[in-house]
Amino acid sequence: MIIALKKEIRKEEREKLISWLESYGVKTHISEGEFQTVIGLVGDTTRIDTDLISGLEIVQSVTRISEPFKKANRKFHPDDTVIRVTDEVAFGGGCFQIIAGPCSVESEDQVETIARAVKKSGAGMLRGGAFKPRTSPYDFQGLHGEGIRILLEVKRRTGMPVITEIMDIAHLPLFEQVDVIQVGARNMQNFELLKELGRIDKPILLKRGLANNMKELLMSAEYIMAGGNEQVILCERGVRTFETYTRNTLDLSAVAVLHELSHLPVVVDPSHATGAARYVKPMAMAAAACGADGLMIEVHNDPPHALCDGPQSLTPEQFDDVVGAVRKVRAAIA
Question: Rounded distance, CA 192 to CA 205, Å?
Answer without folding.
Answer: 16
